[in-house]
Amino acid sequence: MAYRAGRCTNDLYCSLASGKQNLQIPVDSLFVCPQCGKPLTAPSADKRSFSTPALLAVGLRDAQSSCLVEQAVNHALGAAYAEAEGLLVARLHGVKLSVLAEDFHRGMQARGLSLEDFHHEL
């Protein structure tokens, strides 16, 4: 079975994050922390640092907040955001260009269009 390396960054609520452990996650599984459910960060191309850009502009504003109210909200919603992002990432991995192309061509045919109807400047 193939695995991906990742790290949890949920330092406030996850002991796997505080240990800075490299976690091995099967490639056919959601790329989330097995303890807290937060999306893991993957190694960058140079394999020395870990980072991941935010997929969506939604989620916790400040995971390291000193505000007790914000900490309580982060704790209550953190797993839900992680689960939602993990589900979206998993679904995106299932999108195939060939399926998109077939859908595009069906739509063109339904509208009576052909590739000659499209003009793009290079």
What is the share of helical residues?
25-40%
Termini distance? 43 Å
Element order, helices and strands?
EHEEEHH
Let me know the largest β-sheet: 2 strands, antiparallel
- Calculate Rg over CA atoms: 20 Å
How many structurally independent domains?
A: 1
DSSP strand count: 4
Describe this structure in words.
The chain has about 120 residues and is α+β, with helices and mostly antiparallel strands. It has one domain (about 5-40, about 60-115). The protein is built from three helices and four strands. It has a two-stranded antiparallel sheet. A two-stranded antiparallel sheet has the order 3-4. A hairpin with a 6-residue loop joins strand 3 (about 40-45) and strand 4. The chain starts with a strand and ends in a 12-residue tail after the last helix. The model is unreliable at about 45-50 (pLDDT under 50).
What would the keywords be for this entry?
single chain; about 120 residues; alpha+beta; two-stranded antiparallel sheet; 3 helices; 4 strands
